[in-house]
Amino acid sequence: MADKIKVAVSGACGKMGQAVIKAVRAEGDMELVAAVDPANTGKDIGEVVENKSCGVIIGDSLEKALRQNQIDAVVDFTNPDLVYKHTKLILENSSRPVIGTTGLKENELEELKQLSQQKGLGCLIAPNFALGAVLMMMFAQKAAKYFSNAEIIELHHNKKKDAPSGTAIKTAELMTLEREKFGQDNCAETETLKGSRGGVSESGIHIHSVRLPGFIAHQEVICGAPGQALTIRHDSFDRISFMPGVILSIRHVMANNDFVYGLDNIL
Ligand code: NAP
User: Fold this and answer.
1) Is residue 160 annotated as a catalytic residue, yes or no?
2) pLDDT (tens digit per residue) in 23-52
3) Domain residue ranges of the chain, discontinuous segments joined by +
4) Which of 14, 150, 199, 235 is at a distance of 20 to 30 A from 68, taking alpha carbons?
């Protein structure tokens, strides 16, 4: 029988981390070997997530976990301030990153790509692991060819630390592959209240971020043309929506030594 994939979860006690712990433990070809989170350090992660011990004690440092365990792949759902450092640390310790944490900048992505190539290690970074969200981005890219005006509204829970979402940024990037500039026929605008028109991507797509309790992760891409509008919307109602994508990505980084940004590249 093939060896199981030894997986660690960073940010294990967070909203996404807990869902990943459950998902990994449910897979027959994977073994949870480490859980890292400054919250609940020293407790059994099984007790925290499922009220049932599983023998994996929560550690307070990813670096220590990588030194003390043999880890094939690390899934990271922490926060934008840590994601670059963590991804680098994982690769430097010859493990394979599966990164869901958003907030990586373009130059950081480039550096991580080079490091993963130097090391010959699979590395997957996905702003959105939900299959429906990936399709929404693909459909938006397709629509961009036909609509010269488009805006994005992304809606998340009010504990999300970065704005706009990684998904909104990635969507705008994909749409820009089809059209260099959007909204060129808009009139000159004055904002009576600063920020009313949202953030503006390089190609002129306005991105609006809504933060409200009750939401998980949602996005609408509205494309406009004279006399018509096309709205493409995706809703993640439960964090379980991200788990098939996370599991697929763990298997991908184990089987391939490439750098992947965006789940669309492996579907
Ligand atoms: P969250 O609930 O705040 O979870 C983050 C967890 O990381 C917290 O438990 C936090 O502990 C912990 N943490 C802080 N410092 C750490 C460290 N040094 N090492 C390990 N863990 C540490 O956030 P979330 O909702 O799960 O989201 C996490 C990230 O994933 C965000 O960037 C979010 O935008 C992103 N996300 C991505 C997707 C996707 O599909 N790619 C989907 C949903 C969310 P404390 O609370 O004690 O600080």
Assistant:
1) yes
2) 999 999 999 999 999 989 999 999 999 999
3) 5-125+240-265, 131-236
4) 14
Q: Are 126 and 153 in contact (CB under 8 A)?
A: no
CA distances from 111 to 83, 126, 207, 260 (A): 13, 16, 26, 13
pTM over 0.85: yes
Tens of pLDDT, residues 81-123: 999 999 999 999 999 999 999 999 999 999 999 999 999 999 9
CATH 3.40.50.720 fits 5-125+240-265, yes or no: yes
Q: How far is C-alpha 40 from the chain's CA centre?
A: 24
Q: Which residue do the tokens 């043999």 mark?
A: 70
- Rounded to an integer, what distance in angstroms lies between the CA atom of residue 202 and that of residue 127? 19
Which residue carries 């990164």 as its tokens?
99
Residue with structure tokens 């028109």? 197
The structure tokens 């991804």 sit at 87
Residues with CB under 6 A from ligand 1: 10-11, 13-17, 36-39, 62, 77-80, 82, 100-103, 126-129, 160, 217, 242
- 3-state SS, residue 35: strand
